[in-house]
From TrEMBL:
Residues 290-343 form the CBS domain. This is SIS domain-containing protein. InterPro entries: CBS_dom, CBS_dom_sf, KdsD/KpsF-type, SIS_dom, SIS_dom_sf, SIS_Kpsf. GO terms for molecular function: carbohydrate derivative binding; isomerase activity.
Amino acid sequence: MGSLSPQILGVPGSAGKIDAGELGHLFRAQRSNLEHFFDHLDLAQAADFAQALLDAPGAVFFSGVGKSGIVAHKLAQTLASLGFARSAFLPPVDALHGDLGAVFPGDLLVLLSKSGSSQELLALVPCARAKGARLLSLTSAAEGAGNPLATLCDVNVHLPLQRELCPFGLAPVTSAAIQMMFGDTVIAALMAARRLTKEKYAANHPAGKIGKSLIFKVKDVMKKKNELPLCKDGDMIMDQLTELTSKGCGCLLVVDEMLHLIGTFTDGDLRRTLKSSGAAIFNLTVGEMCNRNPRTISPDAMAVEAMQKMESPPSAVQFLPVVDDHNLVIGIITLHGLVTAGL
């Protein structure tokens, strides 16, 4: 249980075909490995580790080699993205060749090592301690002579490892997973303890869908002024075709002399009116055929709220007039504009 068969690995000269049953067996074995971790994790140790990060007076550095180094790098970036602690990955070899200059008294150095005997980390320990750093470790080997890193650090958390899923028990396909789960769970605890708000989180994620959905407001992505397809309710429909098609909104915003919104007239309305009225369309005004109860939105609403409003029942729409508290038109937001903005 818990290892790859030669058929899964694919030996030289074999077809190397993946068997769904064997794959399912491996997933069940990995689940058993993860359950062993959860069942045997010392929560008191985990809490001490999390508290140390929460109370860190300075920067928090993560370090490791191999796959543990990759996990350390990811955890450092995740912590840094929250904005309440300076955090960075400290490559152990580079640290011994000058990068240790970034470490100051009171900083934390978190060392990740499955075995607790990585020579690069053991060489770093006395140097980091001489700089006044507090040392924490995450290891899976039993504490003692076989895990010197745990003994040398101020705080060690034992990450229980039943076995690696690798057929040789060597490749860190399970140990790296539990390192990542442990680190991310602790960071989630820090977010809760710090009462991190979505607004504070968004401030550090201005790019990408996450940040844009939390930062961008309607007024940031709406069309305004000369970009607006405006007309009066007394304008003839056929006289407004250029305005209807030239602004890229697929609609007209019907307003009075003071720019109060009266209604909307879409290219769909044009097709339906032409089909039902025929040549009589030449004698119809926009105001006679417009929708006088359109959905609207405030400029201070979140852009993602605009998208939700467009997609809400009874039928989806492609745009929303943007109006102020006095129903004055100040913009228009379109589905195309939201998608172009990355939302």
